[in-house]
Design brief:
9 strands, alpha/beta
C-alpha cells in the first residue's frame, strides 16, 4: 500500500477527510517553498502538492498562472522542485504529490524523471494534460519506481471513461469540481455535490476520491466531505496568500498555517 493510500485509510478510520494543500514550487522564490510547506503541514495539511512551474499551464487560472511566472522568473526548474520535495521529506513524513504538465517529464525522460522523483521522496504525480489512453509507458515507469499515478476526472467525463480512469489511477482520483480552470471561488456550486454523488459509486472500495478546483473556504471543504468525498484539494487560496504577502514572509506563513487549520477543522466527519 502506498503512503498516500495509508493516509487516506488512517483518516477514514478516524472519521476525517484528507486536506491536500497545493503551492507552486519556487513561488515567489525557491528558498520560500520549504518554509511554506512547513506552514502547511503545521496547519494540518495531510498531503502536500507541489506544482512544477510551466510556461503554458492550460488547466490553471490566473492565480496559479501568475505563480508559475514568478517561479520561472526566479529561476525555478523541474529538478529544483523535486529537490524541494526531498528537502521537505527530510523534516516531515507527509506524502508529497508533484503536479506537472507532461512536457517537463518528456524532456527529462520517463525513467529519469521517476527515478529522481522517487529518490526525492515523491509519492505521487498528477499530469493534467496526459490522457489515460496515452499513459501506458508513463504508468509503467511510475509503478516501477513506486510512485502513484494520479489521474483527473471532470464533469464532462463519461461513465464509461470514468470507469477506465478509476481502474488506472492510484493514490486517489482527482475530481475536477467544475468546468473551467483552477481558481478560488466564493461559493461551491450545487453541481459539484451532484458530481461527487455520480462519481462515488465508481470509486468506493477502489480508490479515494479527492475534489479540487475552486475550493477555498472551510464551508466548501465541509460540504465536500459531507457529500462523501475522501479529500479536498486547495490550491489557489494558498497561492493567493503567497502573492499578497510575498514581501512579508512572517505574515505569509502565519496566514497559510491559519487557513490550513481552519480548513482541516471543517473536515471532521464526526
Amino acid at each position: 500500500m502506498s503512503e498516500i493510500a495509508k493516509v487516506f485509510q488512517k483518516l477514514k478510520a478516524q472519521g476525517d477527510g484528507a486536506l491536500i494543500g497545493y503551492v507552486t514550487g519556487g513561488d515567489p522564490e525557491p528558498r520560500f517553498t520549504p518554509v511554506i510547506a512547513e506552514a502547511l503541514v503545521k496547519g494540518g495539511v495531510d498531503i502536500l502538492e507541489l506544482g512544477v512551474p510551466f510556461s503554458d499551464p492550460i488547466a490553471d487560472g490566473p492565480t496559479i498562472q501568475a505563480a508559475s511566472v514568478r517561479a520561472l522568473q526566479a529561476g525555478t526548474t523541474p529538478k529544483m522542485v523535486l529537490g524541494m520535495a526531498g528537502e521537505v521529506k527530510k523534516k516531515h513524513s507527509v506524502p508529497i504529490v508533484i503536479l506537472t504538465y507532461y512536457n517537463p517529464v518528456f524532456r527529462m525522460g520517463l525513467e529519469n524523471f521517476f527515478r529522481l522523483a522517487s529518490n526525492c521522496g515523491v509519492d505521487g504525480v498528477v499530469v493534467p494534460d496526459l490522457p489515460v489512453e496515452e499513459a501506458e509507458a508513463y504508468r509503467e515507469a511510475a509503478r516501477t519506481c513506486g510512485v502513484d499515478t494520479i489521474f483527473l476526472a471532470a464533469p464532462s467525463t463519461t461513465n464509461e471513461r470514468l470507469r477506465k480512469i478509476v481502474g488506472c489511477t492510484s493514490g486517489f482520483l482527482y475530481l475536477v469540481s467544475h468546468f473551467g480552470v483552477t481558481g478560488a471561488r466564493e461559493a461551491l456550486e450545487d453541481s459539484t455535490v451532484q458530481l461527487i454523488k455520480r462519481v462515488l459509486p465508481y470509486t468506493v472500495g477502489r480508490v479515494p476520491l479527492a475534489v479540487g478546483f475552486g475550493v477555498s473556504k472551510p464551508e466548501h471543504a465541509k460540504l465536500i466531505i459531507q457529500s462523501g468525498a475522501d479529500g479536498v484539494i486547495v490550491g489557489s487560496a494558498f497561492v493567493n496568500i503567497v502573492h499578497r504577502h510575498q514581501v512579508d514572509a512572517g505574515r505569509m506563513l502565519e496566514e497559510i498555517e491559519k487557513l490550513a487549520c481552519r480548513l482541516k477543522e471543517a473536515m471532521n466527519r464526526r
